[in-house]
């Protein structure tokens, strides 16, 4: 059992949660994730580390309330227990020798972009962060990002309510055109990563994407998280979640993400009605 020691609501549907987990905190690295189970009858869901303290023995993650399990998680409070937190899982993001890098975070993907940006700054990288959200209400971690020694923080919103109006690909393209970019990293909705990778491909800027396929066990046993990269099958949980963005088959990723959507809708509706059937 893992005790919840911190909870903060970041926007209408996004929450930050911290749990006591000294063994996990001692090993956490940027880009890695956890498998979290709220109660013993619940499903395991993957969530990325957004922060941790090896000294104080806690880890934090940020989640968007999208379905049954994230709804249940959002109702837990400080002092409550999570049944399981397993991690750190996945290969850490390569942050050494990044040079001049653009980190692109879309929506709740900013939760992953933040620790990656922090690690790249610590490793001496010259880091520009581009964050995108539908509107200013949905922007997260702006204060934390501003506290990093970034070259620049560019904020984009679809409706222009904060920062530049438009998509993250516009400032990314400008950076690529300036010739001042050695590499890029993108994390967010699959469609955003697809277009970020398409933008950098034109300029031959190597691009890493942090993929979010459906995961079940997170240990390489079930095959649920398989993705095609450069024509080869890879398992997102043990060989990723980071992959070469120019080689990922995004159409397949997006279609596999929708496999369980009917069941997910049903489970969420049952949960909202207060059903205890543990779908
Ligand atoms: C490596 C990795 C890291 C992630 N990190 C974060 C994070 O830091 N913050 C965050 O908000 N979300 C993160 N996600 C997505 C998160 O796991 C899903 O939002 C969550 O599982 C939704 O569960 P649900 O029961 O609330 O919703 P559901 O109704 O079950 O699902 C809603 C949508 O979430 C996705 N999803 C559902 N179950 C899974 C699953 N087992 N594995 C992957 N995706 C799933 C699907 O696209 C689905 O359509 C990450 C996913 C992966 C693979
Ligand atoms: S989640 Fe089962 S193999 Fe990756």
Structure description:
The protein contains nine helices and 16 strands. The protein has 279 residues and is an alpha/beta fold. The strands form three sheets. Strands 6-1-2-5-4-3-7 form a seven-stranded antiparallel sheet, with helices on both faces. A seven-stranded mixed sheet has the order 11-10-9-8-12-13-16, sandwiched between helices. A two-stranded antiparallel ribbon has the order 14-15. The two termini are 22 Å apart. The mean pLDDT is 92. The structure holds flavin-adenine dinucleotide (FAD) and FE2/S2 (inorganic) cluster (FES). FE2/S2 (inorganic) cluster (FES) binds next to helix 7. Residues 215-218, 220-225, 235-237 line the site of FE2/S2 (inorganic) cluster.
Low-pLDDT parts are none
Cα(first) to Cα(last) distance is 22 Å
- Compute the number of strand runs: 16
Which strands sit side by side, in order, in the main sheet?
6-1-2-5-4-3-7
Helix content: 25-40%
Class by helix and strand content? alpha/beta
- What is the approximate shape? globular
Brief sketch in words of this structure:
The protein is of the alpha/beta class and 279 residues long. Helices cover 27% and strands 32% of the residues. It has 9 helices and 16 strands.
